[in-house]
Amino acid sequence: MGFTLVALPLVLGLLYSANQVNQLSKQGASAIFSVAELINTNQKINNTLKKMERYASQYFVLQEIELIDKYFVEQRALLESTEELSQYNDTQIKQLTAQFSEAIHQVHQDIVKPETALPTTDNQVTSTSLEGLQKEFKQLINISEQLNTRSNELINQQAQAIKNSTAQVSHTLLKSLFIIPISLFIAGFFIILITKPLKQLTLKIQQLQQGNFQQDYDLKEEPSLGFIEIKEINDALNRMIGRLHALELQKSSFIRHISHELKTPLAAIREGTELMYDNSVGSLNSDQQEVTKIIRNSTTRLQRLIEELLNFNIVLDSTSLQDKETINFPEIVEQVLSERTLDIKRKGLTIAKKFPNVTIESNAKQLNVIIDNLLSNAIKYSPEYGVITLTGEVGENQLVFSVTDEGTGIKMDQQDKVFDAFYQGTPAKDYNIKSSGLGLTIVKELLMRLNGNITLASRTKKPSGTTMKICLKSMVNGEQK
């Protein structure tokens, strides 16, 4: 309907303009033909009248039958041309041609005997003097000139009529150009009418991308947006959201339960292993001590994997992403640092902090996981007695937080892969616990849902190191919310 209403004025305008141009073309062709015919007839009359006068004068002097025969031939031709001219639809032309025909007959009567129609014998004589004959032909020439004058006037009228018609058609075509803005207005109206619900569906899909499965917008609430096709898309999207939400809850529930079920026996195993490793239940020989160390490291790794699996479950759990609160960012960082105190002391690391005291509106649970994973990676790849730098700055309506270590850096061919799930790059030196490869994937997914992003910069040449930079666009206290 929209395309029809947009195209209809243009089509109608085009057809109307084509009809006007066609009529102008026909009028011009008719006028040109009529003018050409009028000019040709006048020329024939003038030429024939001259010949007729010459033959009549010569016959009047010489009295030769051949001359009068030629005169009669020219007379008939002159009468035929006059008859053709009298067919022209003009009152004055008709009157002049009638006078012209009458004058021609009068000359004929004056040349021949009244009782003779055509000269056929030698005893034919004239009934007028040469002077009277020339006077009558002068009258014919005078009427002929009046016919020429009137013909020229008619030609000028035809030319003026064509000029007026051309101006009128041109004016009509210019007026028809107003159809273009009208069509553009109709097109714009339908574009707005169609794109408005599409933008709402796009927003709905973006919210779905961020894990919001609680939305259920019905386009029927707005009759102006009630296109059947868009309603069908909306209904299909609602059904898909419901199905995805159900699957999301099932996955989250499964991972949560299986992780807790695994942690319970693991805690007992790790506690027993620690007792054996510390010789709390008796002394162990060197082989037993080595086996206990392997079990102890394996249980530590398994516990870390389960913790990362629980963190990954936070990404899958869409319901936990909807709870936003006002958070003091430095407090979140200090909380993460306190949880990693033992790991930091074990390697003798120094933490350099420089960030503003700013509050943000975000999800504390996910933000804690993000910073913990970044700090964990920095600790993992930092050399002993190295420095980890935590910096933050506010600018362009966002908070930029960076974690920089002094490790060996990430190779260029690995930098695009570190955010892929289960990807494990070059292992850290003197780090026996194997990573699951989910840490940075979790960070990237959570930042995407929190309307943020992450970038990295790494150097493999000395001074080597890696900087992980995150941007959060949810500032409070006069900044962007």
From TrEMBL:
PROSITE patterns: HAMP, HIS_KIN. It catalyses: ATP + protein L-histidine = ADP + protein N-phospho-L-histidine. Keywords: Kinase, Phosphoprotein, Transferase, Two-component regulatory system. Residues 257-476 form the Histidine kinase domain. SMART domains: HATPase_c, HisKA. Residues 192-249 form the HAMP domain. Transmembrane segments: none annotated. It holds the Pfam family HisKA. Its EC number is 2.7.13.3. GO terms for molecular function: kinase activity. This is histidine kinase. The lineage of its organism: Bacteria, Pseudomonadati, Pseudomonadota, Gammaproteobacteria, Alteromonadales.
